[in-house]
Fold this protein.
Amino acid sequence: MVRPKTEEEIELMRINGELTSRALAEVGKAVAPGVTTNELNRVAETFIRDHGAIPNFLNYEGYPAAICASVNDTVVHGFPSDYVLKEGDIISVDLGTKYKGYNGDSAYTFPVGEVSAETMKLLQVTKASLYEGIAAAVAGNRIGDIGHAVQSYAESFGFSVVRELEGHGIGRDMHENPGVPNYGKQGHGPKLVSGMTICIEPMINAGTRGVYLAKNGWAVHTADHRNSAHFELTVVVRHGKAEQLSTFDYIEKECNFKF
Ligand code: MF3
Ligand code: CO
């Protein structure tokens, strides 16, 4: 059984989600051609520590950095490196903060300079599929309703849903039950209860859905080497409408791209 959070716990997660959201926007402002993904990692880690929180990815099951920096055909869990971003790339930045014992976790896929219209569509559709999932994350629904909402939306544009990785509950641990797949059947899976805190994180491929794990044991790549996008928000299940505990508002106000 998944224990719903108390309002006191949710308040701490709201504060933390705010910090995660602002950290992601700081990174977004630094994304540009010529910048390395190591530099983005430093921006995130500095911002998080300067605000009295801990980068919760660092050392998580041995993960070596504060962010995941997943470029182009990397779906998730790319290590920051000396790779230099170039015009036309896309980069999923995934990061989290730990504050007063609770975890935040969010991701956004940024365009680097001008990207193709097709790539812009992938970003738009993946982000919108996340909001479709959030709209289904209401008390009384089931986990499968979220996955169905994400999947049916993304596939209606001819894109495909990665199935090997999924969203998750979140709280004192970054990954709690239930798992939140991005595909599924309406009315199936665990019931959603008011106060459950979950991360919904569609990973959507431009081409086929197949992926493989890199030799470093972390990075996940598309099998066809086409682009993949990833957006993640933390929400609390409520009656009628989920409440977002993290937001893209700072990114969308402070970064100079539109989609
Ligand atoms: N944000 C990722 C997730 O949603 C967590 C990254 S795993 C880590 O599951 F090891 F990088 F922390
Ligand atoms: Co997550």
Notes: The chain is about 30% helix and 25% strand. The helical segments are 7-30, 37-50, 117-135, 143-155, 249-254.
